[in-house]
Amino acid sequence: MSDKNRLRIAVQKSGRLSDDSIALLKAIGIKLQIRDRLLIAHSTNMPIDLLRVRDDDIPGLVMDGVVDLGFIGENELEEKMLERQASSKPSNFITLRRLDYGGCRLSLAVPSEMDYEGVASLQNKKVATTYPYLLERFFKENGVNAKAVMLTGSVEVAPRAGVADAICDLVSTGATLEANGLVEKDVIFKSKAALIQRADGELDDEKRALINRLVPRIDGVMQAKE
Ligand code: PRT
Ligand code: ZN
């Protein structure tokens, strides 16, 4: 059983944000014993428990108040917020800090042979993505009627497979797009990792005091790297 008085922090179990998030927690003085298979890791020097989950679950865990803090990519956070708003689920959270890792952009990309003169060229087309809410918001803002086709993986092969005309996916170096004959056209969202907190009213004084001690240490660690 986990102790309700301990600060609960959600981190990605294994993926692009895991190592940097754990390294940051260690750098601010939290001693952790992480066993690979286990969902929970207890700190040995502070009243803190880590919950190690898929990144997709982290926004909901924070917004439902199951955990107090979470490390999450802003792309995933914004997508889940829009999804929860659409189904009237709680979607409140506080961004404590934008962090210095996990940088990427969510971009529209099209096959190199396609004529593209701006997002209007996607009118009545299908666009494969893992981020349908962010993509549909962008289409709406730009007055374009196009269809977001949800794929949780292999988005970059969708045009070649005849599943979609274009894609909207995360890009960092651009190598994946290039390898798949796709050209990046419009950036629709810029993202970094962020540290988020559940809605403030729900935190007891001891947890709030602990958070207030930890956050300046994060600033210190980030400044030292600059
Ligand atoms: O298993 P779990 O659900 O937890 O992990 P996941 O597979 O959903 O996520 P993961 O670990 O791949 O990414 C976690 C977060 O890292 C993302 O939500 C982003 O906030 C951030 N991030 C930063 C990235 C990238 N850079 C990135 N390049 N996430 C994914 N990519 C992928 C992209 O989808 C594409 O397939 O990398 C490929 C493109 O990279 P380049 O360098 O070829 O452009
Ligand atoms: Zn995920």
Automatic annotation (TrEMBL):
It comes from the Bacteria. GO terms for molecular function: ATP binding; ATP phosphoribosyltransferase activity; magnesium ion binding. It catalyses: 1-(5-phospho-beta-D-ribosyl)-ATP + diphosphate = 5-phospho-alpha-D-ribose 1-diphosphate + ATP. Its EC number is 2.4.2.17. It is found in: Cytoplasm. Feedback inhibited by histidine. GO terms for cellular component: cytoplasm. Keywords: Amino-acid biosynthesis, ATP-binding, Cytoplasm, Glycosyltransferase, Histidine biosynthesis, Magnesium, Metal-binding, Nucleotide-binding, Transferase. Its main location: cytoplasm. Its cofactor is Mg(2+). Residues 54-219 form the ATP phosphoribosyltransferase catalytic domain. Pathway: Amino-acid biosynthesis; L-histidine biosynthesis; L-histidine from 5-phospho-alpha-D-ribose 1-diphosphate: step 1/9. One of its GO terms (biological process) is L-histidine biosynthetic process. Belongs to the ATP phosphoribosyltransferase family. Long subfamily. Catalyzes the condensation of ATP and 5-phosphoribose 1-diphosphate to form N'-(5'-phosphoribosyl)-ATP (PR-ATP). Has a crucial role in the pathway because the rate of histidine biosynthesis seems to be controlled primarily by regulation of HisG enzymatic activity. This is ATP phosphoribosyltransferase. It comes from Alteromonas sediminis. The lineage of its organism: Bacteria, Pseudomonadati, Pseudomonadota, Gammaproteobacteria, Alteromonadales. The gene is hisG.
